[in-house]
Amino acid sequence: MKITRIVARQVLVPVKPQKLMITALGQHRVSKYVIVRVETDAGIDGAGEATVAPLWSGETVWGCQALIDHVLAPVLVGADPSDIAGIDAIMDRATQDNWFAKSAIEMACWDIKGKDAGKPVYELLGGAVRPLAVRSRFSLAAYATERARTRAQELVDEGFTTIKVKVGTGSTDADVERVHAVREVIGPKLALTIDANCGYSVAAAIDAAHRMEPDNVCLFEQPTPRGDFEGLAEVRRNVKPVIMADDMAFDLADAKELAHHKACDLISIYPGKNGGIRKSKEIVEYAAKHGMACSIGSNLELDVCTAAMAHLVVACENMQVEKYPGDMLGPSYHEFPIVKDPIDIKGPFTTITNKPGLGVEVDWAVIEKNPVT
Q1: Rounded to whole angstroms, how far apart are CA atoms 51 and 300?
Q2: Residue 19 within any structural domain of the chain
Q3: Number of helical (H) and strand (E) elements in the chain, helices listed first
Q4: Quick one: 287 and 145 in the same domain?
Q5: Would you say the pTM of this structure is higher than 0.85?
Q6: 136, 162, 168, 359: which one has the fewest Cβ atoms less than 10 Å from its Cβ?
Q7: CA angle 276-121-88, nearest 5°?
């Protein structure tokens, strides 16, 4: 089987107003992504999704499409899509970084491989080690205090048992007030975590964690700026919450730095950020050998990438979502699906099927009707 063509299309999907995301990186009102179709001479197509975000990975829909059209597609035509490691090697020789663009093509190849074998991707990864229904936490945006209170109560009513509060947006006082308000609403028994998205300095992160101790924050995600492994390690040594690395854990080299510096307790993993499913699994397995847990992270994905995430979670023992619930609710944030068979998301639970491949079918008519302009 050989790749005959790779098609990349931009799509714009608004975020539901009630789920507007506000973080240290700004506001996320619309998702501008790239959807990929990899075609083969066997008549089997695969779908992938690049959830690009300029302020996060530096990738844009325009750059992503140009890279796929003019750099990656030309060198991949004629390659075997079932040789995932070989596909990765070809892309890595063609360009550095560009994790989300590469991941879209790679997950499309997994989709093809699964369809060809008549198996879901999680079976190709070694088989299911947990149920196909996975519980997530909810990421509560950095809202004003009263809005945070109202939203927290809504989430409790929907059945969420772990609430993640976004912090690091400029005022530690406001962060502390928001976290305290959420704790008051959800009560003492539910889990409360925070995520700064690199928004604090080392000193500010330690100070914020100490000030939030009365609210029993159990996990502190990405408190310090990207690349500062020593700084993250210093925070870890001086605060009570478990430390999660996300924005500074793109590839295996980053995971090795985190382990070397003893900078975190667990790593946020997701195929888009890590350049694909295979590379994500490689990091997960490395982390397990070095005493670091992993959980699933999110970039507000649509259904295709969410399916890729879910297959990874279902197949990897060290994706410890039971102990550290992750984020896998992206499609529920958006106004409409871009697939014919949306992933089942009810409250905190995301459930995939045992259909071959990724188990979702892109509705290309929807993609064509909603271009990025």
Answers
A1: 8
A2: yes
A3: 14, 15
A4: yes
A5: yes
A6: 162
A7: 30
